[in-house]
Amino acid sequence: MTLYGNYFTDPTGDTYYGNLNLVSNEPVYLYGSVYPGGRAINPAAFSYPVGSGVGTAPRNFVRGFGAEQMNLAAQRQIPLHDRLNLKFRAEAFNLFNHPNFGYIDPYLTQAQFGLATEMLNESLTTMSSLYQQGGPRSMQFSLKLAF
Q1: What's the distance, Cα to Cα, between the start and end of the chain in Å?
Q2: How far apart, in whole angstroms, are the C-alpha atoms of residue 28 and residue 41?
Q3: How confident is the model at residue 34, as a pLDDT?
Q4: In this structure, what is the dihedral angle of CA atoms 18, 24, 29, 30, given to the nearest 10 degrees?
Q5: CA–CA separation, 101 vs 130, rounded Å?
Q6: Partners of 84 in beta bridges
Q7: Backbone φ and ψ of 44, nearest 5°
Q8: Entry pTM
Q9: 81-127: pLDDT as tens digits
Q10: Is the dihedral of CA 59, 101, 126, 142 positive or negative?
């Protein structure tokens, strides 16, 4: 993930964020049960560059969380009569309801810097969060009569 440093405007009028400075002898991560996902980025490990400095922290060296999710589907076809069949299907998404943390606040000046503030399914906004990777356990069932 990218941490945001100073805010710049280049000569063409485009705006962007620079990197932060990496403070030596400070751990990059803090671990403990008080943090979402058991880990947070240590705000004391970073500082803003002076003036228009680009920062000493490498880009994208801080990592977000991985994702763990097991999906399962089962189907059963039950013959009722000659060409009449009943099909039952059950699907479970995130079967073990494993929490998947997503968005981590990248702005050093904010109080929640380095903390996971959203679950993964809310961070990926391409579809309904119920059907997105990293959501809570959900199940769907279907019956189909085929003749």
Answers
A1: 53
A2: 6
A3: 93
A4: -130
A5: 15
A6: 81
A7: -70, -15
A8: 0.74
A9: 999 999 999 999 999 998 999 889 999 888 999 999 988 888 776 66
A10: positive
